[in-house]
Specification:
Shape: elongated
Structural class: alpha+beta
Number of domains: 2
Radius of gyration: 24 Å
Number of helices: 7
Low-confidence stretches: 1-37
Helix content: 10-25%
Distance between the termini: 24 Å
Number of strands: 23
Length: 336
């Protein structure tokens, strides 16, 4: 099961890698243009013509400060690989940035997502990497700006433009245009408890095994609608204890499997989205790549009961991770 439901670690890494590669490539290209540049370099320089004046002439309004924040909250910046002019080496995948509130952004590449912070510093809109706002060299070349469209595009949902390197235009669209499962990291959750009386005698060995396999439909009933995660926690500045699991997943009743891990509570989580389905009464799990290929069978329909610290009570656990992954009732992190 680990091959299909393991926690993906690619979401935030690929997002950070993407914007870093683009920044390095474009800054290097910009720095190479000089008085002694050859014809090829001058041709590339033309690709970096400042589009600010053209946008303003078309009726776009540049936003900064609180105006920019208010405009972006609840909307998505779409960065496509095709946004970069031909002839300039760039990343080979698209990414999307949903600004859910004034501090948190959800960043998605393919079927992997991560949370991170974002900020506005004057006219600088630091979405991809907030630390860019603190790097004067990067600010000079990246120069991210936000422009509100004169009118929304009803067909595409575009409401504005996010401009980087003064020349690369990315769309700002209305609402959440990502697959990101929105998360509320402030919960702890309640472990699923099974009373000894509910366990069939035939399931228990005479030597008092402390681990009982549950398979088939009963195992599926434990999985669907519940959260499974490791037990790491963090303590906030007020002494509150919060879950920050290294590994976990949630089988949503709507058919999604949300895998997740916490790198830093509350603002840095990675998530992946694949799917489950029932076929001929068997549980089928989509491959981690999210390519629509499913595997079915007993390997995916298995959990275990293990004794808790309380007499006559058992916990539900899985056995495919190197850590102890325990079942918790319901949607612990209120994924939406």
């Amino acid at each position: 099961m680990i091959a299909r439901t393991g926690v993906p670690n690619r979401g935030a890494y690929t997002s950070r890698y993407a914007v870093t590669v683009m920044a390095v490539a474009l800054c290097a290209a910009t720095l190479s243009f000089g008085e002694h540049a050859d014809a090829a370099q001058k041709q590339k320089a033309a690709l970096f013509q400042d589009k600010t004046a053209a946008l303003l002439k078309r009726g776009y309004v540049e936003l900064s400060g609180d105006d920019a924040v208010n405009f972006l909250v609840g909307n998505t910046v779409v960065v496509k690989k095709t946004d970069t002019p031909k002839g300039i080496e760039a990343v080979d995948f698209d990414s999307r940035y949903y600004l859910s509130d004034r501090q948190k952004a959800y960043v998605c590449v393919a079927n992997g997502c991560s949370t991170r912070s974002w900020k506005v510093d004057g006219s600088e809109i630091c979405i991809e990497l907030p630390e860019r706002c603190d790097d004067p060299t990067d600010r000079r070349y990246n120069a991210p700006r936000l422009f509100k469209a004169p009118r929304p595009d009803r067909r595409t949902g575009q409401i504005g433009v996010y401009l980087t390197f003064r020349s690369i235009v990315h769309a700002v669209v209305k609402g959440n245009a990502t697959i990101a499962p929105l998360i509320d990291p402030g919960s702890i959750g309640k472990m699923i408890n099974v009373n000894s009386a509910e366990i069939e005698a035939s399931s228990r060995s005479s030597d008092g095994d402390t681990k009982i396999p549950i398979v088939g439909g009963r195992a599926v009933s434990f999985l669907i609608g519940n959260t499974f995660m490791s037990g790491e926690t963090v303590t906030d500045e007020r002494g509150g204890v919060h879950s920050c699991p290294t590994q976990g997943y949630y089988y949503a009743p709507d058919g999604r499997i949300i895998t997740f891990n916490c790198h830093r509570w509350p603002d840095f989580w990675e998530m992946g989205v694949t799917h489950w389905k029932l076929a001929s009464g068997r549980l089928c799990i989509e491959d981690l790549s999210g390519d629509g290929k499913f595997g079915c069978g007993a390997d995916f329909e298995r959990v275990y009961l293990t004794r808790s610290d309380r007499p006559d009570e058992w916990l539900v656990v899985t056995d495919e991770f190197p850590r102890k992954i325990v079942g918790y009732s319901g949607n612990v992190f209120n994924f939406k």
